[in-house]
Specification:
Oligomer: heterotrimer
Number of domains of chain B: 2
Structural class of chain B: mainly alpha
Shape of chain C: globular
Number of domains of chain C: 2
Largest sheet of chain B: none
Distance between the termini of chain B: 13 Å
Radius of gyration of chain C: 19 Å
Helix content of chain C: 10-25%
Number of helices of chain C: 6
Order of helices and strands of chain B: HHHHHHHHHHHHHHHH
Strand content of chain B: under 5%
Largest interface: A-C, 24 and 28 residues
CATH topology of the largest domain in chain C: C8orf32 fold
Distance between the termini of chain C: 16 Å
Chains: A alpha+beta, B mainly alpha, C alpha+beta
Largest sheet of chain C: 7 strands, antiparallel
Chain lengths: 474, 314, 275
Amino acid sequence: MATAFDEMTGVPGATEVREAYVTLKRWLETTPRHLLDTRRSQAELFFRRIGITFAVYGEVEASERLIPFDIIPRVLLKREWEILERGLKQRVTALNRFLADIYGPRECLRAGVLPEDLVYRNPCFRLEMAGVKVPHDIYAHIAGIDVVRVDADTFYVLEDNVRTPSGVSYMLENREVMLRLFPELFEEHRVAPVEDYPDALLASLRSVAPAGAGRDPTVVLLTPGQYNSAFYEHSFLADKLGVELVEGPDLFVRDDVVCMRTTEGAKRVDVIYRRIDDDFLDPLVFRPDSVLGVAGLMSAYEAGNVTLANAVGTGVADDKAVYSYMPEIVRFFTGEEPILKNVPTWRCREREALAYVLDRLDELVVKEVNGSGGYGMLIGPHASRQEREQFRRKLRHAPDGFIAQPTLALSTCPTFVAEGMAPRHVDLRPFVLTGADGCRVVPGGLTRVALKEGSLVVNSSQGGGTKDTWVLDA
Amino acid sequence: MLSRTADHLFWTARYLERADFLARILDATTRLTALPASYGRPGNEWESAVASSGCAAGFYALYDGANEYTVRDFLAFSPTNPSSIRNCLSVARNNARAVRTALTIEMWEAINDAWLELRRFDAKAMDREEFARFLEWVKAVSLAFEGSSHRTMLRNDAYWFTRLGTAIERADNTARILDVKYHVLLPATEQVGGSLDYFQWTTILREVSALTAYHWVYRESVKPWLVADLLILNRQMPRSLTSCYETLVRHLDLIAEAYGMRGASQRVASTTLARLTGTRMEDVFQSGLHEFISGFIADNNRLGVTIAEQYLMP
Amino acid sequence: MRIRIAHVTAYHYDRPVKAVIQTLRLTPRAHDGQHILAWRVEVDGAARLSPGEDALGNRLHVLSAEGTLDSLGVRVEGEVEMLDTHGVVRGAVERFPETVFLRETPLTAPDEALCAFADAAASRGTRDRLALLHHLLEAIHREMTFDTEPTHAATTAAEAFALRRGVCQDLTHVFLAACRHLGIPARYVSGYFLRGDGVVVQEAGHAWAEAYVPALGWVGFDAANGISPTDAHVRVAIGLDYLGAAPVRGARTGGGAEALSVSLRIEQAAWQTQA
């Protein structure tokens, strides 16, 4: 594995400083340690008071845990960001066109852009969506694209998230707490603001209201409820958007129209920003045991009387097996070369690739095609022999379910840890909004940091933390 | 507003009011048992505390008898008693969390801090003094929540449903005490007991924190029919049935006005209020205090059901 | 052969229901071996029906009702003309390529035992897919006993196979799981079956499978009877599994407990239409 690129110094331990970090480095060197300690505990207190928590599955005691926050921001220059931004818009545009195509004319399948099987046999390709017309052909209204950096010029897309991506509340709250704790730093940097994200989100959602909605469409946010790991984010966003936070039982369908139960009677709902998975949306169509959804929702949706954001069936586009075809998908649907690279990926469904992967389990990262959150993943170089053997068996038994990638040397950023300042690996999840008037990316995103020395796993469910992400506006 | 939001607000307020009431029962009972037996202690104060809490059935399924330790454990901490103080606070917090954004930050902090702090109280290691501090803390939590709602909420339907929850629970609690202890308030007991019952009466007043109020209102020594009058009919007394119903009617009217529609809840509440204001204490004693209270508890429950059907879970 | 069907489903609620919504797949489409002479679906006065079509092309009705209902009734009456096509289904509506029907679903996911069973049936030395499917059909029919007791609507193929028991739904799921494990597209069919023994009154509808055979197209396999469907099999809806083809899926608000009564008559109609 190559040496990681350090975003502050370039080469790890070097004395020169990259342009974006000049002011920050000086500040870090001149600010006394005890002051940083104080600010860090103030930040933690702030997060605890507002109740921003993340549930961790399998840990009863820690069912409401804080995600650690690192007070040192991650900094990007405007010119670095602009490349990213163009790449993200291109990618999300392609994803939306891909979805519109496979649920419509299926031209990309006829053209052989990707194997038919990957679509037709994919459980996330929702048969119910075939031929359904969604407003403005937008499927992924909200996308979270996970990006990693490997050198000064290269960003890779690690994963597309176009189902119900989460984390944007951390982007907003991290900035909020930084503004409170380090006003002097903001005086010395011109940081592009992120706080208009909720306004942009609401505008996007309203722009895709169904034709019958009238001039002031009613938008709601549908949550699985307070025991969901991301409930804080749901309630935070509903509050910032100024829309009702509803649960399945708050809604019902009458004559193919979705209504919510209010103290003043039934009220029509036009756009549902849903944060529950397809499988749970409608017990009459998907899982019959779901109590989180709304019976009849799909029939109202198919009738064009309500818009779901994101659309049903987007999961087929962020599947890890489809991911490996993203360069081809981008070229086919935009006619352009992809601006953001894909991580080289071996599809274990292909015999030769599988043989290659089985030979190199100790150097590759193996991922489940339908896994998320860092579960069901093998990081070869860090895994025990036993773990590798376990994956070898899984791969032989069901190779279709896996892909493998090289272990990337994710870039590092200075991070405040127990021993002081130290480089830690980071990734970045920017949020891309798509509405009737096009794509928007709020400058920044959520930087996730692996707090353990040498660790590459940044997922919050696996002990990762977060940082504020700055795009310098100069 | 979403019906479920109104429902959660209503129940948050109810559960906090109930926690406060349980703390008062425990506090007053502890005081009563501290008296020497010759001062009219009937010897079953703890049984009476369980009966007043309204969860006697659950209690006797778990314990052989009522004493300081079993009742304290059951009413304050028991995880199996759905209405223990601990469960009340935790259910109230869950309700509040579900509608976090409908609460003001002050209300949320009052209840969330309480929930976080609750885990620090160790029921097993608690002596009498610590237990007394615990009860004071519970009362302070309810006070902080109600106070912050009063000071910080917009005067809209969210506030009105919160007030309804508090008032309907409070009416129920006052009625329950009267239902359990009505026999010591009957005119006949004056001849039987005289000063012997004095401590029973003052205990009732303490349970609804009205001992001082009594003296201000009646300016005479504690008389059982006046205690009953204070708790049932006195409009100045915030825990009296009449006062609770004035609150209920006022806030139901505000809701009806805002929504432009009156319904069954408004009718049920104003009928009950009219009955309370049209009644004199003599009539109550004549027709039977016990019957009057039982009838009231049923009416109050009916109002709860009606509000739920009309607004909270249509 | 003409078959006449009268199928009445009645729900009785012990407390009034506030709202009911159901999707009904109770209306057949025609194919080369099946002609619909008359068909209608009716509900009680309080409920509304709106017709539609699902993703696979099945005819669908959405039933909805609000208010206070003590009961709900759905009545299906129809008459079809059937031809024996030896199980081959031609001229049916096909919305997706057959590879869609290789998908595993929660109800049809095989376990190791079921995979081993499928592999054993496949290893009987034939390369002909049709012959293989018949081996599989016989094996399931032989191995499993029809029994209404131990399984329910949510029983998986693997569970039923472990019990070696089940109803037509379970046997069909086992067949589907085995086919898909062997790489053969297969799907669930719900419908009606005219019994050969003259019994007219039945307890429930029927279910069988269709598997894809390249030269022939979709071919039916009735695991419960150990035969390919004949002119006695009225084909109503298809799905990846029971849930996708279920005659009724519903949800309701309120109502407490529910009592369900079904009255189903399936009989040959030739004598009557001559009159």
